[in-house]
Amino acid sequence: xxxxxxxxxxxxxxxxxxxxxxxxxxALINALNDQRLxxxxxxxxxxxxxxxxxxxxxxKCLNCEQGVSATPCGECSSxxxxxxxxxxxxxxxxxxxxxxxxxxxxxLDNVQYAPTRGRYKVYLIDEVHMLSTHSFNALLxxxxxxxxxxxxLLATTDPQKLPITVLSRCLQFSLKNMTPEKIVSYLETVLxxxxxxxxxxxxxxxxxxxxxxxxxxLSLTDxxxxxxxxxxxxxxxxxxxxxxxxxxxxxxxxxxxxxxxxELLNQVSAMAEHGPDYDEVVQALMQLWHKVAVxxxxxxxxxxxxxxxxxxxxxxxxxxxxxxxxxYQTALVGRKDLPLASDPRQGFEMILLRxxxxxxxxxxxxxxxxxxxxxxxxxIEPETAMVNxxxxxxxxxxxxxGADNSIEVNEEKKPLADxxxxxxxxxxxxxxxxxxxxxxxxxxSEAPVQEAQVQEAPTNxxxxxxxxxxxxxxxxxxSLVESEHSAPITSSDAHRSVNNAGAADLLNxxxxxDVQEPSADAVLHMEEDIIPEKSFDFDWQQLxxxxxxxxxxxxxxxxxxxxxxLNSALISxxxxxxxxxxxxxxxxxxxxxxxxxxxxxxxxxxxxPVQLLMHVQLxxxxxxxxxxxxxxxxRFAQAGHAIMEDEIVQNLVSEFEAHIIEGxxxxxxxxx
Length: 672
Known about the structure:
Elements: H1 6-9, H2 22-33, E1 40-44, H3 51-63, H4 77-84, E2 90-94, H5 101-108, E3 121-126, H6 133-144, E4 150-156, H7 164-167, E5 171-174, H8 180-194, E6 197-198, H9 200-209, H10 214-227, E7 231-232, H11 234-241, H12 246-258, H13 261-272, H14 278-297, H15 309-318, H16 321-337, H17 344-357, H18 382-389, H19 392-395, H20 432-444, H21 465-475, H22 478-482, H23 491-500, H24 503-508, H25 520-530, H26 548-554, H27 559-566, E8 568-574, E9 577-582, H28 592-606, E10 611-616, H29 624-645, H30 647-656
Helix pairs in contact: 3-4, 5-6, 8-9, 9-10, 9-11, 12-13, 12-14, 13-17, 14-15, 14-16, 16-17, 20-21, 27-28
């Protein structure tokens, strides 16, 4: 007996033998059992998903001698003839080869005649979208009002090419692509029945290569059996398909996670011996990073569609989320640049080396860049940050917290003239006549100003307040600007103090007018610039909801664990157990792995077996994030109010029609 290919030998004969397409089968089975039969059915979907198979089973259900039902007997002459393809009342038409209108008219001439053997005359038109426009027009009338003994079963892989008039006359069923799990499960059944030795990873390779088509999967399995002489092994299937070995991709991921550059290059060299498609390797890495990232957030969402669930979960536990996001983004951008590389292997190696070069080094205990997703506009700009880094050249002190040349706006509403700075080594006061002379000569007088004093004069008669302050400060002796002052600040001294505090820098680089509340990220950056890091005593007995914010500030956390800690409120402490509420806004980031990281850090700093219970719900107390945002918002408001009430500022506004740029006022000091 001649060999029959698997795709034909294992074609389902009944609805119960179908794999997948439950949404289509349910509708057809219910319609057959309830005798609610339509005159035209349209089955759409990609190749090899069961369109023609379902149509033939439906024809068998309609013409079974036992009666119309969803379970034909399969034994009567009608069922056997349909299965063998010789049933006279089942007219199968290949529309791809019969596209002319004459062929369609010849077909429709026999519609009026009653069936010869069966109960219904069934017209199965495959690839119906290939019919010409005239053929569709000839079919419309019959398709709309066919005789009671006629059923039309249409199948197509491209329903967009069908006229809307045809679609409206049919019941349309869209068949889905097969998932790799269903394909692998069916291949296991087939190979066991055929007594073929196989490896499960090889079946996963075939299932992915089939791209959702069961017929393609069976055809590839036939090819693999022939290639392996009756055996289906993974290395043979990889060689046959020319695909990338998934084991090598996982090995690359493990090496990237550990940062072993030499081993990484050796692995690329070993892979290059097989002549891989490096673009395909990058795609495989991206798919792997995506799965690992999903596994860290929702482990239950990972399926075993590629037979790698266990490896994915292990990799997710071993890697930091920040690294995974970086690796994915680097691969995504690097894939676009890969065609531009002079050598594909060279471009691939550079992508991998870029992943390691940009990998963040967790040297700081507090990684502020990853806390909070947005930075409040109008609070901190890159130019301002650069000025703050160069502050020693102006203020003469590296530690801004130690140099009290800046003004700290206290909780009381005081004008700038009444504010005092902390006692420091005294220096001679600036003589009032000198400052008065400078103010008059540079800000008030309408006489020509020397070029050495002002580089460019504005075209209007009134100078803005920021230019006035800048010119006055620029005229001061360098020794006075760089020295510290212990005496009460006078009207003229206030300008120098504001300059040392960073106000002049803000005026030189005006910030956008934005009165939005500062984000936690901006607040944290501001505080780190002001307050130097100090040693902290992690006294377990003193820990409470009131000082939890201090613990968070000094805990060696970074990334998502830090974000979760900042948005958590300590509710109670009982012996070695802590109960916390996590803000629901962080619910997407929170999982048991993040909880364990925070718990481990607490154990390390306290030396106690801390047990951490965290509940995602509206916090019953104030979180560190909420506290810092609230305090800084209050201090921003106090600083703005104090500036507006200051006599010097009021004089500048009234005499020179100056205006204060909203958002340029920045409080000095720490929010705690």
